[in-house]
Design goal:
- The protein is α+β, with helices and mostly antiparallel strands.
- The protein has one domain.
- It is 37% helix and 22% strand.
- It has 5 helices and 7 strands; from the N terminus they run αβααββαβββαβ.
- The strands form 2 sheets. The protein has a 4-stranded antiparallel beta sheet, sandwiched between helices. Strands 2-6-5 form a 3-stranded antiparallel beta sheet, with no helix packed on it.
- The termini are far apart.
Length: 148
């Protein structure tokens, strides 16, 4: 019996190590709230989309896809490494999108199983960085980190 219990724990650990996560980086400077308050809002609601009047960047293009958020997929063991890489890339991406570099200070981490990738958003590409919640955002939220 003991062997069976240890075996199950090992399987549970292996399962945890292969879980897929979605990482969303944001900057509190792009929001009307101070950093700590924004983190609390995300923690409580599961999302940084707290203002119904605020739209996504390039909303005219993305609204037809019903996008909830943009993120990158990563396996749990590489989560920290992925966040570091994304933090380096983020200012360049925001320069392309917004015309000025923005540095991220919050990482929002979701359970990929509780979200769905929106397919065929970009011409000729099946995969995208666009996601929708399958459940309440709070239920998909794994962690909120202050980064940088």
């Amino acid at each position: 019996m003991r062997h069976y219990t240890v075996y199950n724990k090992r399987l549970a650990l292996e399962s945890e190590m292969t879980k897929q996560r979605l990482v969303r980086l944001i900057s509190s400077k792009s929001h009307q709230l101070p950093l700590e308050e924004l983190v609390q809002v995300i923690h409580d609601s599961g999302t940084d989309r707290y203002d119904a009047d605020r739209s996504l960047i390039f909303n005219d293009y993305y609204k037809k896809y019903n996008v909830d958020f943009f993120a990158e997929k990563v396996a749990e063991p590489k989560l920290d490494e992925k966040i570091k890489d994304m933090m380096i890339e983020f200012p360049n991406k925001t320069t392309e999108d917004r015309g000025n570099a923005v540095s991220p200070d919050i990482a929002i981490i979701y359970d990929a199983e509780k979200c769905e990738m929106i397919e065929n958003v970009y011409n000729g590409q099946f995969e995208s960085d666009c996601f929708r919640f399958k459940t309440l955002p709070k239920d998909a939220l794994v962690e909120v980190r202050i980064v940088g």
